[in-house]
Amino acid sequence: MQLKPLLTSIFILSLWFCHAQKAEYVAAGEEELLLSGDWKFHTIYGEGSNYITVSETPEDIVIENSSKEHVKVKGEWILKTQGDRGSTFYGKNYLQRSFGKDESENNYVRYSPDLPQSGFYEAFVWFPFASHLTAQVNVNHAGGLTSSYFNQRNRCDQWLSLGVFTFDKTDTNYIEVTAITANTVVADAVMFRPVSTEKMETSKEEKATIFKSDFDDSNWKNLSVPGHWGMLNEYSNYTGIGWYRKTFNLPPNWKKSSEERIRIKFDAVYHLAKIFLNGELIGSHQGGFTPFEFDVTDELNFNGPNVVAVEVDNSALVGATWNWGGIIRDVHLVKNNDVRISYQYIHAEPDLKKGSANLKIKIRVKNSSAKKRMVLLASHIDEAPQTTDLQHTITIPANSTKEVQLASTLPASAVKLWHFDAPHLYHITTTATEDDKVVHTQRDRFGIRKVELTDSQLILNGEPVRLAGFNRVSDHRYWGSSEPQYLINKDVDLMKNAGANFMRIMHGTQNKKLIERCDEKGILIFEEVNVRELTNPEFTAPDYPLAKQWLKEMIDRDVNHPSIIGWSVGNELKDHYDYAKLTIDYVKNELDPYRLVTCVSNSGWRDTATPENDPNSLVDMIMHNLYPFQGKPEEVFKTLRSKWPDKPIFISEYGIKPMATTSLDGDIPEISEWNSSLQNKKPFVIGASLWTFNDYRSGYAATSPEENRVWGLVNAWRQKRKLYNRIENEHSPVEQLEVLDLDVKKGHAQITITTKNSGNYPSYTLRNHSLVWSLHNTKGDTLAKNAVELPTLQPGDTASKISMNWKPYLTDVTSLDVRVLSPNGYPRKKKRIALTVPERPSISTIENGDASVRIHFNPVFNVNTYHVTHQDNKGEIVKSKETMTNFIELNNLENGKEYSFKVIATNEKGESKPSETRMAKPNGKVLPPVIWDAFVVGDKLIVGYSGESNDVEYTVKYGLRETYFQYKSTTITRGMTVIAYEGDAPHFISIMKKTKNGKSDWSKPTHVYSLINFDK
After folding, report:
1. Strand bridging mode 451-453 / 458-460
2. What pLDDT is recorded for position 672?
3. How far is the C-alpha of 799 from the C-alpha of 754, rounded, in Å?
4. What tens digit of pLDDT does each residue of 615-625 get?
5. Of 503, 702, 891, 913, whose CB neighbour count within 10 A is largest?
6. From CA 423, how far away is CA 503, in angstroms rounded?
7. What's the CA dihedral at 632, 636, 638, 640 to 10 degrees?
8. pLDDT band at residue 388 using 50, 70 and 90 as cut-offs
9. Cα–Cα distance between 329 and 226 in angstroms, integer?
10. For 192-212, how does the pLDDT look when each residue is reduced to its tens digit (9 = 90+)?
11. How far from the centroid of its chain's Cα atoms is residue 903's Cα?
12. What is the pLDDT of residue 626?
């Protein structure tokens, strides 16, 4: 019997418990039906394209800028022969122009084809890198003029589809490159591809019927929700419109009633969505990260199947991050009584002297009925049941919403403050009762903490703190921006372990599961709306209704989270004083009067930025993005402070440079130099947030061949880089952790702990921390351990001394580990002391390449680095670079020559004995890809791998044993492949690749692990 059907059934059963279509009791007066899980997915020809699959054919008509007969240039454009940011271009050169505002009419490059016949043609554009984020491309066709907007920093050197159009060969047909806003634009080449009438007739018929209930979707792909269409290889780089459909039945107990309403709720769809239910358009939404909902009571079928169809468009490319297209977060049906609580906001302000806390609660009640209703609202706090004055009777007119505010005080005995080291949480439940019948309850979680600012300090619960963090991009190479719970939990732990306590987490509304996890684990956050370029055609001055909509959707959802201490209305905008004033006032006056508000900037340091024209004058806290092109950090800080002496500064992003390769040995020592500009300097800089925590997928120019931007402490698969260790150490509030008088035989040592002073970075009081130590043998087994409670350690305290004692005369002791742990279990400083040199390592496999080899070895315990030695042509011993990983590549060898290799492990006590010698001979082939990750989710095998610019395709073989691979799968997708595997769930894989110059050998077999309960 094959295991795959059984495992698939088990997986589906587990999903049923997590995602099954069943009504679950959520609260009185409310039931939910989760519509996440398997949906059907399909695209219609002409509504988008997977651009990595587009290459020229003999039938295509290509026009590049040097074709004088077919290219008209109007205005002053310069000819360039070198692409910026390492990008390439189609022919021998390309055209570039720096546009001012409203110059499109008199400045453009127009490509006009000689069409062999009238009919349908798909139009494409090609360009190298340029700085314009909304370059305009116009297509003049038989139906008129159609405009598209392109971020020319993104998806360079590709044929990008503009759509399919009807062209009359006797008309004036053209593709035109121009701009309506200021910045640099490039024009390079265009392509016209003939499309058959039959294909377009099929597309036309699909468009007219695809949303109808009786449409046959049986041949569509299966696609998970939450998820994205890049989980299907053929849509790995698809930009355009995709269609989702799901058929479902309502629970048997859901009956149509005039006293109940049902809503369909989407937590997020990227980026444009149209929702159809049973063939009817329910509504649309613009904005890929914020939640939205529609009342569908009258469109539902209560006596049979229902069909929801969603048109999704991910064409909006914003910034350097990936446009993960699809229904990226959960979908629910929610049934309520016709009177319900639609919103609840609780603000808890502690009185630090008295120890009590003042509560202010705002509740909105929505009446969807045709008559006025009177309900009693009563709020209850689980952790403080004695709280009073939380009741109010409210009358709501028919078909309207009304708001009420309640207030009370928590006594000191019931108050526990929320802190990043001790994130205490409360729960409030509000009940709406009508005629002694509960019609709805609303339950929310909150925390009690006090955040204050001076001109130079951030004060948390009465204590000035200087804090560090990261920007975490909502991105994973398989999960995209859909982020299951296991990934969120893993990332929060990785960030906390590396000292993260405060951060501007990213541009864009976050997954609510991430915010909840930050509540639970203790990370202070500024959450930001996804506004990065005001010239984006989505945004319309002067009122910016869409940006205000996103702010409302974000803040209404997240307003009760104690981890969020502030909101940002945008990132790195230009000419944005009026926008910032409008949106900051909107947030403060209408959405959240209590939290801080900012607008993240990178322009305040410029000479043109003044207190009169720059939004830094409007914000509560200056958040500045700092990069080397601005100059030395100290000078930038000095400039900002001279203009705004009354505002503290938080460095919302800082980055030195991306790493040269995706290697896990990647490090940026210059970051330590940057951090030194804050250590006992510039106290008004209250903290900083590194760009970035993780690598992230991107179409930007100069991105790695794996399509990842390599800025992270961890890679796209969450494996730590060498940089992680550097930041983990420098984000510590402990200056020194020393072990003195160590005597292993007698079983004694003394530890001293010295905190950083209040002017250092980062710096804060350590309360209820503990010292944990452990002794280990050569295998890494624990021989002895203990934990000691530490006294409160304030910044600048004298050294604390703790004695360690263990059983004398322990044998095979190889290392001592010492850690300072926060009360919620995260290390604030750690140290390993090697007592012996490492054990002898061994080489497991050698992969041969072109004048190169990749040597894999079996890691041993108590090691800092490994290196390999071999003899060169002169007979001299050559030492490789050092690595923290379990493999190393050697280059500049001689093909056909046999070499002898040894691997050596090193720690501070010295070098291990060399491994046994292994022989290998470079064979002239390219090395196979490195397998970063390989796991099974349900009936899919996910493989992440390295890539090079010359790669053409990749083949993965897989099976149950590392010596027998029964199945193969080939793909052109970069960096990752998703395989609907055959047979039983594979245990091992190997990979090879084809390049423009030949094929590699197969890689070392890699073990595959199974991922279950990934959304719990």
Report:
1. antiparallel
2. 92
3. 5
4. 999 999 999 99
5. 503
6. 16
7. 180
8. confident
9. 4
10. 999 999 999 999 999 999 999
11. 37
12. 95
d(CA 964, CA 1002): 13
Contact between 175 and 115 under an 8 Å Cβ cutoff? The reply is no
Residue reference for tokens 């305290």: 797
- CA nearest to 796, candidates 760, 830, 749, 828: 760
Instruction: Write down how long the chain is.
Output: 1016
Mean pLDDT of the chain: 93
Q: pLDDT-based confidence at 1, cuts 50/70/90?
A: very low
User: DSSP strand E in 29-159: where?
Assistant: 30-34, 37-42, 48-50, 61-64, 71-74, 78-80, 94-99, 108-111, 119-126, 135-141, 144-150
Q: What is the pTM of this model?
A: 0.93
Q: Please identify which residue in the block is written with the tokens 């509540």.
A: 519
Omega within 30 of 0 (cis) for the link into 561 = no
**Residue 1016: band (very low, low, confident or very high) from pLDDT cuts 50, 70, 90:** low
CA–CA distances in Å: residue 498 to residues 99, 394, 529, 736, 884 = 44, 49, 26, 16, 18
Return the percentage of the chain with pLDDT > 70, whole number. Answer: 97
Q: Angle 749-752-757 (CA atoms, 0-180°, nearest 5)?
A: 170
Torsion over CA: 277, 280, 283, 284 (sign): positive
Which residues in 654-683 are b (16+ Cβ under 10 Å) and which e? bbbebbeebbbbbbbeebeebbebbbeebb
Residue 622 one-letter amino acid:
I
Q: pLDDT-based confidence at 26, cuts 50/70/90?
A: low
Q: Write down the residue that tokens 């590049």 correspond to.
A: 64
Spell out the residues 6+ positions from residue 328 whose beta carbon is closer than 8 angstroms to its own. Answer: 226, 227, 228, 268, 269, 270, 288, 480, 481, 482
Helix (H) or strand (E) holding 971: strand 967-971
840-890 per-position pLDDT tens digit = 999 999 999 999 999 999 999 999 999 999 988 788 899 999 999 999 999
Asked if residue 402 lies in contact with residue 396, where contact means CB atoms within 8 angstroms, the answer is yes
CA–CA dist 466, 480 (Å, integer): 32
- With helix as H, strand as E and coil as C, how does 609-678 read? CCCCCCHHHCCCCEEEEECHHHCCHHHHHHHHHHHCCCCCEEEEEECCCCCCCCCCCCCCCHHHHHHHCC
Cα dihedral: 552, 555, 557, 560 (round 10): -150
Sheet containing 451-453: which strands, arranged edge to edge? 451-453, 458-460, 463-465
Q: What is the share, in percent, of the chain residues with pLDDT greater than 90?
A: 90
Q: Which residue has the tokens 């008309």?
A: 171
The alpha carbon of 762 is separated from its chain's Cα centroid by a whole number of angstroms, namely 25
Distance CA 991, CA 1006 (A): 9
Three-state SS sequence of 258-291 = CCEEEEEEECCCECEEEEEECCEEEEEEECCCCC
Identify the residue whose tokens are 């072109």. 850
Q: Which residues make Cβ contacts (< 8 Å) with residue 400, sequence separation at least 6?
A: 366, 367
The three-class DSSP label of residue 730 is: helix
433 and 375 Cβ atoms separated by less than 8 Å: yes
pLDDT for the residue 317: 73
Please give the distance of CA 750 from its chain centroid, rounded to a whole number.
43
Local structure of residue 75 (DSSP, 8 states): S
Tokens, residue 417: 């403050």
830 confidence band (pLDDT: 50, 70, 90): very high
Q: What is the pLDDT of residues 43-66, one digit of tens each?
A: 999 999 999 999 999 999 999 998
pLDDT at 7 over 50: no
pLDDT in tens, 511-548: 999 999 999 999 999 999 999 989 888 899 999 999 99
